[in-house]
Write a structure and sequence with these properties.
six-stranded parallel β-sheet; 10 helices; 14 strands; globular
Length: 337
């Protein structure tokens, strides 16, 4: 049985808590959060991209700590799940590794490639597992699309377009502070950059245009990732004003022999072949967050480096996304990686 401590009980902390509760070989033994009502299982004030959660969780048998430091002193815990603001990832993850814990840390892994490298070195030195929670690698539609692409179901790729957008968050003041969160583009599109690098490899260069006006709730980019495969790879999205704009994510992969398409609000993964009817491939039934956390649990229990979601890839995604933001600042100048 893996005893886990969750640090941070905001939106993602609550999502991870639910996923951990469904694993038979792991137990949430402790949580850390400065707000006593959340330590007691009251998530009625927690909001996120998918709205508020009015429910409660039974945390009566779970030790509650006010600070991360207190939780890291709990010798009964073998691993921690860090769901804190991004600027806290580096110090808390380092402290956890020094305390001998395996570490799952929410995406983005850190605010810079240098910080990510520091965490990887610390995990290697401590002989502990480090993994960033890149949930899209485990998302059924994205995972199956990757396999179909590898199997050649759409033939030679001509273009791949990924979008992810939502309203600027009205919750969590830290998200609205680019110094703490990296901004909306950084926080959201880290998923799509990581997925592209998993499927297509590291791009040679990036170019990007967009707008950054956080005071008006705007942080948007359209970026091109240059690959030697000759296909156009575009990532687009970010914050579209505060208020009612809904969250959505989608992609289209266009090939010689067909098109793969997915939209989170109205179209599950569908293959449109050159000839014949559209196909909707079978998808794994397991929730992406549960699959992600199950995989980390397996790696932590075995002391095995997470080859399916290695932190080196997460660090590369941070580096690439920072280059995209820099290209946007320079008006679309090409940045070589």
């Amino acid at each position: 049985m893996l005893n886990i401590g969750i640090i941070g009980l905001g939106f993602m902390g609550r999502v991870h808590l639910d996923a951990w509760s469904r694993l038979p070989d792991a137990r949430v033994a402790a949580v850390a959060d400065p707000k006593p009502h959340r330590r007691a299982g009251d998530f009625s004030a927690v909001q996120g991209n998918l709205g508020a959660d009015t429910g409660h969780r039974d945390l009566s048998g779970v030790r509650g700590y006010e600070t991360a430091e207190e939780l890291l002193g709990d010798s009964t815990l073998q691993a921690v799940d860090i769901c804190l603001p991004t600027d806290r990832h580096l110090p808390v993850a380092l402290a956890a590794l020094r305390a001998g814990k395996h570490v799952l840390v929410e995406k983005p892994m850190a605010l810079s490639g240098t910080e990510c490298d520091c965490l990887i070195d610390a995990a290697r030195g401590a002989g502990r597992v480090l993994m960033a929670a890149q949930a899209i690698r485990f998302w059924p539609d994205y995972a199956v699309a990757r396999e179909l692409y590898y199997l050649g179901r759409i033939g030679r790729l001509h273009s791949a377009v990924f979008r992810r957008r939502c309203a600027a968050p009205a919750w969590g003041a830290w998200l609205q502070d680019p110094v703490r969160s990296g901004g909306g583009v950084f926080d959201l599109l880290i998923h799509d950059v990581d997925y592209c690098q998993q499927v297509f490899g590291l791009p040679a260069a990036v170019t990007a245009v967009g707008v950054e006006a956080v005071e008006r709730g705007l942080d948007w980019v359209e970026a091109r990732l240059d690959y030697p495969l000759g296909a156009l790879v575009v990532i687009s999205g970010g914050w579209h004003h505060p208020g009612a704009y809904p969250f959505s994510m989608d992609f289209t992969l266009l090939g010689d022999d067909g098109t793969l398409e997915f939209h989170s609000t109205h179209r599950r993964l569908t293959l449109y072949p050159v000839r014949g009817p559209a196909e909707q491939p079978d998808l794994p039934a397991e929730d992406a967050y549960e699959a992600e956390i199950r995989y980390f649990c397996e790696c932590a229990r075995a002391g095995r480096w997470p080859e399916r979601c290695p932190p080196e890839d997460s660090a590369a995604a941070v580096h690439t996304l920072r280059a995209i933001q820099e290209s946007r600042r320079r008006g679309g100048e090409k940045i070589t990686l």
